[in-house]
Every structure is written in C-alpha cells, then in structure tokens.
From TrEMBL:
It is found in: Endoplasmic reticulum membrane; Mitochondrion membrane. Keywords: Apoptosis, Differentiation, Endoplasmic reticulum, Hydrolase, Membrane, Mitochondrion, Protease, Serine protease, Spermatogenesis, Transmembrane, Transmembrane helix. Its EC number is 3.4.21.105. This is Rhomboid-related protein 4. The gene is RHBDD1. GO terms for biological process: apoptotic process; cell differentiation; cellular response to unfolded protein; membrane protein proteolysis; negative regulation of apoptotic process; positive regulation of protein metabolic process; spermatogenesis. The chain crosses the membrane at residues 103-122, 181-206.
Amino acid sequence: MQRRSRGIHAGLILLLSQIFHVGISNIPPVTLATLALNIWLFLNPLKPLFESCLSVEKCYQQKDWQRLLLSPLHHADDWHLYFNMVSMLWKGINLERRLGSRWFAYIIVTFSVLTGVVYLFLEFTLAEFMGEPGFRRNCAVGFSGVLFALKVLNNHYCPGGLANILGFPVPNRFACWAELVAIHFISPGTSFAGHLAGILVGLMYTHGPLKKIMEKCAGISSSNMHYPGQQYPFNSSGYSRYQDDYPYGRPGYSEDVPRNYDAYTAGLSEEEQLERALRASLWDRGALKAGTKNNNLGDFVVSE
C-alpha cells in the first residue's frame, strides 16, 4: 500500500510554517529531533505504508517485529503528519522543559514501543473474545498513540483547568477520554485501539509501575528524582529565560523563549488547533473517503 501522492503537500507546508513561527531555537532538542525525524521519514519513507504499519497478523503471527519501530514514525499523508506533529510540538515544549531532554527522550522511545505492544494486545484480545479475525488484520500507522500517552502525562502535571473539546469545556483529567470519543465520532475510520493504547500507557506511567521500572532500568533511585519547577525571570523584552536544571537535561542550558505560548498558535488552544486540522484534513480527503476506508490503516485512519 503506497502513500497517496499529491502535487502540493499543504499539510506539510503548514506544519513547517508553524515550526518556523515558533522558532527553531525555541523548540527543545528532543522535540525538534522528533519533528525532524517524522518529517524526513514522510518525505523519505523507509518502507511503504503496508510494510510499516502495525497489526497482529503482520507483527505477531509473521514475526515482523520491526513494525513496532516503523509504525509510529510513518504517516499516511501530509495532513496526518500535520495533525500529529502540531500536537507533538505543543506537548514537547511543555513536557521536555519540565522533565529535561534526556528523560523526555527516554519517554518518547519507551512510549513508542510500548504503545505498539499494548495496541497488539488490544487487537488480539478483541479478535479472540469477539471471534472476529478482522481485528488481527487492522493495520495502524502514525504517532498518535504516543501523543495520547504524552497528553496523559501533560494533564497529570497540569491537572487543573478545562480543555476545549469540540466546543465543550472538559476538565483536564477527563480530556483524553473525551478526545478519544470525539475523534472517533467525527472520523469513524480512526484506530480506536491505537489511541486507547496510548492512554493506557500514559496511565501506566502516571498511576502504575512504568515510571519506577524505567527509573530502575536507567539505574536511577526514586529518592534522587526531582523535577523542580521552572523559573521564568521576566525581562523587558517580553521574553523569559528558561534554565534547564533538571537531572536529565543539560546542566546550565538556557534559552530565550516567548513567554506567551499562545502567540505560537494564533491564540488557539491545542484542542482548537487539532479540531481545525481535523476539519481541514477531512475536507481535503473528502473526495477520497471511500478509498481511505478500504485502506484500513488503523491509526491513519487518522491519528490525534
């Protein structure tokens, strides 16, 4: 299965404009590297989508385990890429500066693999309990499972406030579940299991044993873990200086970043950006809707 080709990748152009509007120097290194890798692999895919998507049949039964690494880094089209990477940009800026670059990189790698494993487990379970072998063939591709896991983390560290989900205010602690339902209500072809897998991995980190397991594997004692709050000394230029004094970041690293993150996104909240991107994506693919459903690409099948 090949990626649909078009002369102009409007979603990619829009994504690049968002990145340059934020400013490359204002994007933490791991977040920037993740964006760059996904864009590079969209333009230069290692394998066709049918050979990189993740399914029980291909990965587990045929032992093609490399799909665990390939599937989150490949996207079905430019709007799929835009939709996911705009979300990654916002989440990465918040989480990487809170947790430090090294630990955030560790999280990205762990979540990428573990989300795929949980996805396979969910699809296998559905196939067994419902007696429907089609679940084994559902093939998912895209970064959205990881993004749902990161959203759980972000809501865990910033528990207060409301999120705007399709125009409805939702408490942050329920935002992931509301988005899970909303996305599949708007676009039924998306991979429900892929997104649910991301939420479950995020909960395993925030409320389960995953964080302690990761610390133990990294040789870190929980008693030595500390994530001091960021400090943003304000200066007359309207910018604030970020000091990365986290144990997993680069000691003494600092950079000037705009104090008002809304300026990056024209004042839109993350959910409003994603809603706009989804509408644009659905409009852009309207004429190809029937063909998209036949492709059955799980997570494209669009991601977050």
